[in-house]
Write a structure and sequence with these properties.
Jelly Rolls; three-stranded antiparallel sheet
Length: about 120
Amino acid sequence: MLVKKIDSLDARPVETEGAEKCTVRIIFGKKDRAPMFSMRQFDIEPGGHTPHHSHPYEHQAIILQGDIVLVSEAGKRALTVGDAAMVMPGEKHQFRNPGNKPAKMICIIPIIADV
């Protein structure tokens, strides 16, 4: 069993093209020998966002702090603390922080997608 303090993990900038004011902490992943999933925490500063992208796997997110807008081809959806979202494979999406306070979310992806 592994137990970690999230705030003690290194936050690295999301360097994917199109991301702004966004960092990620790998909570559990390949380096931990996780067999199925990678869990990550994204911190998005006010005005920041993840890239607008898609990928061939689903992922799930839960909002821990702040307000986030989930942008998809179906439109925009406001999310707040305690909301959870599942993005389906191939669905173009982006998480944006429209507020004036930092936002945090946990995102879970298949381990095969962990880099």
